[in-house]
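Hello,

I think I submitted the adenosine-5'-triphosphate job twice by accident. Can you confirm which output corresponds to this input? Input:
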Amino acid sequence: MADNIVLNIRNVDKTFGGLQALSDVNLGIEEGKIHAIIGPNGAGKSTLLNVCIGRLEPTSGTVTFDGEVITGKAPHEINQAGVVRVFQTPEIFPELSIIENVMIPAFARRDGAFRFNPFSSLRNESGIREEAEHVLRDMGLLEQRDHHAGSMSRGDKRRLELAMGLVQHPRLLLLDEPTAGMSRADTNATIDTLKRIKERGMTKVIIEHDMHVVFSLADTISVLAQGAIIAQGEPDDIRGNQKVQEAYLGGAH
Amino acid sequence: MGFFKLSRRDAMTMLIFIALVLLAPIWLRPFGAAYPDLLQKFAIFGLFAIGFNILFGLTGYLSFGHAAFLGIGSYTAVWSFKLMSMNVIPAVFFGTLVAGLFAVLIGYVSLRRTGIYFSILTLAFAQMCYNLAYSVLTPITNGETGLRVLQDDPMVIDGLFGVVQEGSPIGNFFGINMQGYPAFYFCAVMLIIGFFISLRIFRSPYGLKLAAIKSNQNRMKYTGFNTRPYLLWAFVISGMYAGMAGSLMAVTDPLAGAERMQWTASGEVVLMTILGGVGTLIGPMLGSVLIKYFENIFSAFNKGALHDVFAFMPDWLENLVVAVVHPFVGEGWHLTLGALFMVIVIFLPGGLMEGFRRLSRLRGRKPAK
Ligand SMILES: Nc1ncnc2c1ncn2[C@@H]1O[C@H](COP(=O)(O)OP(=O)(O)OP(=O)(O)O)[C@@H](O)[C@H]1O
Ligand SMILES: [Mg+2]
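Support: Only one job matched these inputs. Its output is below.
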């Protein structure tokens, strides 16, 4: 295996009761690349990401990030190590304002997992605020920054989530259907943003149903069906792959 | 920058708060509330509720056991009087500190659970403290009689300075006796400090993180925060406020009894906070003043007083009205409180502060039309 693998998933199994959600998954994610995972509904894609960020423990197998085993670590430790997840169903802080939603992850990066500073003032945190504003400008949300996050449209919430991930400048960004529920224009804007970040060398794993997004971004594609990886390769290989055609591209989509 | 790193608006809030508190003996006179005993209660319970709100309002964790810290603060303060000095400074200092230590312990265990299980754990701890105070711990708490300062207590520090107690011991602030208005002003200064600290916490990154934990704790974990110590500190801070409030009770009347730790006392601070407005800066203070004010007025009425009030009515009507009103006053004041509470929770879930916000929005809209 090449030594520029940042995330290494080894022999991962996950069962829910009798359901085999992941079976013997092996996957290496190369540094600086965009790696797409595609597959039909219920294939186990989100489950795989859940295992990577410590939301679920695998039944067996290990996940290694940057040479260190992260299976069994607490979610906040995995985040602090540099693995950040953007969720499939928006996970935001609905009661806070949009800018506060982005400042929170910026604080996590600067302050670490815990910092007790009840007497410093938010008014003096202009550095954090500027970082958040910068990312919000990229995502086209700057004008609304003082609105309540809970009242945003679903598509805007997705962009907010992306902003929350990007502001942490993670080494590895895991995106679970980042454009689901977005308009065509917003989808294209998101693709552009993700491409721009690629130039800065952030490694990304992206789960997508939208083939337009997948083929315009991915360097490598893995196909997951019924919990197993059935094909892996460059976009052109995947497009022509017979097994993939049957399992996915030719099917419901 | 201005006044202690506050924004202009917060500095204004702070100044108005200070003015209202210090001038309370004047502007509360028309309401018949301008006497020191009641004013002290306002300040003490205000402090209790402001601290409680740092836990409940910011993090959403509802403790049903904060009266335990109130009691611990009182007992510690009385012991400080007995062993060291009738000076109130060490009494308040140790009352706050010891309550904080207990809060570390109780919080550490209770915070392993969330929601209703957290509430039940805190309630269980408080009931444990209450029962221990009446049984095993009688040597420390003096059981049902209550802990009081006696003339032949050691008071080591007072002894060193040759201070002699004459008559029944009274707390003092470097020679000023803590009774009447001086006692109120001592409590008022503590209240102002407590309010200022709460304001600063609300406006700090730490406070914002607590609000985010309340909003979506799981997301906080995936965002890289270890939420447990954040919550524990909030729990300890609010426990220290309760401890300070408890020690101030002992300052104004050097006596401590276990009834302060009863679950009804824990419930009262929850009511105060919700009535005023959970998570708002001023709400808890407002709620505690209102509850203590009405408790004072309503519980003072007896049947005779009611007949006097309604004497202008024809006899049959007077008797009817008195019969209807009587269950709500005197001993029955809790019925009024319960009814008031239900009305607020149903029609104004954000408490009185939400009521004010709605009113000011209505007024703001009219001129625009
Ligand atoms: N926490 C859970 N408990 C039980 N079963 C689960 C759990 N999470 C996922 N599953 C099941 O595991 C299988 C894989 O689900 P997963 O969400 O990973 O699919 P997916 O590939 O992300 O699908 P989609 O494209 O619809 O998002 C599904 O059958 C799902 O019902
Ligand atoms: Mg999924």
